[in-house]
Specification:
Shape: globular
Number of strands: 7
CATH class: Mainly Beta
Helix content: 25-40%
CATH topology: FAS1 domain
Strand order of the largest sheet: 2-1-7-6-5-4-3
Number of helices: 6
Distance between the termini: 37 Å
Order of helices and strands: HHHEHHEHEEEEE
Strand content: 25-35%
């Protein structure tokens, strides 16, 4: 079994979350999510950003309060596996807003708001990552 790494190192190693990692770097969150926890991160994969024009993404990266609000809407305190999610209808994000959790019976998984979990239960030393197919908007 491979040695577990923290949330940031795991996300970097997966290679599917480069825009999310860039946002964490811009906001100075790398140290926090490398050391603190546990956290559950609903991490949009790169394809989630493909429909957004580059200039919109650039503007978002320049507006730190806005970007932080978006990032914080993807993170929950505590570690929630898919086994835990099946008994929940919502989770409070670190921004204080609630994420809606629903079973996605057609796909055999879960939806977080409108996003589908496409890779679940990516274990980390300080939490867990669930890859999602959309960006969550508070």
């Amino acid at each position: 079994m491979a040695e577990l790494k923290n949330l940031i190192d795991t996300a970097r190693e997966k290679g599917a979350f480069s825009t999310l990692i860039k946002a964490a770097e811009v906001l100075g969150l790398i140290d926090k999510y490398s050391k603190e926890g546990p956290y559950t991160v609903f991490a949009p994969v790169e394809s989630a950003f493909e429909t957004i024009p580059a200039e919109v993404i650039d503007e978002s990266f320049e507006d730190h309060p806005y970007l932080l609000g978006i990032i914080n809407y993807h993170i929950v305190k505590g570690k929630y596996t898919t086994a835990d999610l099946k008994d929940l209808t919502s989770l409070e994000t670190v921004s204080g807003k609630a994420l809606k959790i629903t079973s996605d019976a057609t796909k055999g998984g879960f939806r977080i708001d409108t996003a589908r979990i496409i890779e679940a239960d990516i274990e980390c030393t300080n939490g867990i990552i669930h890859a999602i197919d959309e960006i969550l908007i508070p």
